[in-house]
Amino acid sequence: MEADIITDLRSKLKEVEEERLKAAQYGLQLLESQNELQTQLDKCRNEMMTITENYEQEKYTLQREVELKSRMLESLSSECEAIKQDQKMHLEKLEEQLSRTHGQEVNELKNKLEKLKAELDEARLSEKQLKHKVDHQKDLLSCKSEEVRIMSERVHESMSSEVLALQIELTEMESMKTNLKEEMNELQYRQEQLELLNSNLMRQVDRLTEEKEEREKEAVSYYNALEKARVANQDLQVQLDQALQQALDPNSKGNSLFAEVEDRRAAMERQLISMKVKYQSLKKQNAFNREQMQRMKV
Q: Coiled coil: which residue ranges (predicted)?
């Protein structure tokens, strides 16, 4: 009886031992499978961490490139604007110079034209006066010829000495009258010349008045342009002072003296991003390991 019990207990113990061995084998297989899964998970996590780190590095690099391109674009825009302003100022100066030269040439041509007009008027008046003198001399010559002919006829007709004396006196009076008329004509010619000269002088006064007004307008224009240039110069001086202050500012990104420091700072930022990514990955891995340990304990 006792032998049966012992045999039965031994068989049960053997079964229990076999089940324990099977359970141990299952546990080992499960542990191996878990280790394999953990290895794959670590591998995936490392790959994910590498991808994330590369992504962050590429993102930061692209941001830096975008910032650099933006600064370059701003610099190029400023240079283009400066070139446009220079070209505009040069064009305005050229237009002003051409306008001034054109005005001077027009004034010179006006002066020449006025002078030619005055000379033409004087020539016409002289021609008129000479023609009038010639006609008068012709008339006078005809009168004298007629008088000489009449006197000759009267002499040949044996006129008395008294009548001849009166005739001679009359002839002298006629001659004096003619001389006075010539003097009057000369005075009239002189008056016409003076009137012509006065008219030319009045035209010159009008032209000089117009030139004076144009010069005054040019002076006002030059003053306004000078005032604009002074204001622009003040603005440029302010911009220059700001640029100098920015160049002396250690925080300025555009300062060439701090370019090396800026590069080091960028490298440290990239390193910090990499450390943050690794820290987050290790933190997640630690949490996962703790969770697995809790499950193993249960």
A: 99-133, 163-285
